[in-house]
Specification:
alpha+beta, Nucleoside Triphosphate Pyrophosphohydrolase, globular, 41% strand
């Protein structure tokens, strides 16, 4: 069995009334996993770092730029029967102020800002639910950070 790397996830969040809210994206009907609510996902391009891919994909899929950007202490893992491989996907977090409007790419048809509980109900895959839990726990004392997030400077 193989281990595959080469993709990233970025969880866009804001803080409202002292609690994190997450941007959830509805997958377009013509794509794999159509009709599921997701975070930002994408592939790392040749010569690109994972964190650069995470920032780029956030901009491409939502039109948003993070005011603060983080790597999490969490790596999503899942097995795919299509590739007969375990996939390792580093999770990043992009903070934006005041839940701005997002601009959808062709990959998504809708978005909503959701509380942690709403996000946990929408996300289908356990690794995505765990990633938002890690981010929410680290953002409890926002703008101070608990463990689980490490801020990455603009690069």
């Amino acid at each position: 069995m193989n281990v595959i790397t080469g993709s990233i996830s970025t969880y866009v969040f804001t803080v409202r009334h002292g609690r994190p809210c997450f941007l959830t994206l509805l997958r377009a009907p013509h794509l794999l996993h159509a009709g599921t609510w997701q975070a930002v996902h994408g592939m790392i391009e040749p010569g690109e770092t994972a964190y650069a891919a995470a920032r780029r994909e956030m901009a491409e899929e939502t039109g948003l730029a993070p005011a603060r950007f983080f790597r999490t202490d969490y790596v999503e893992t899942f097995y795919s029967d299509a590739t007969d491989a375990v996939h390792l996907v580093p999770a990043f977090a992009g903070f934006v102020a005041e839940a701005p409007a997002a601009t959808m790419s062709e990959e998504h048809t809708a978005y909503e800002w959701c509380s942690l509980d709403e996000t946990l109900q929408r996300f289908v895959w356990p690794s995505q639910r765990e990633a938002v839990r890690v981010i929410a726990e680290a953002a409890k004392w926002w703008p101070e950070l608990g463990s689980g997030l490490r801020e990455l400077p603009d690069r």
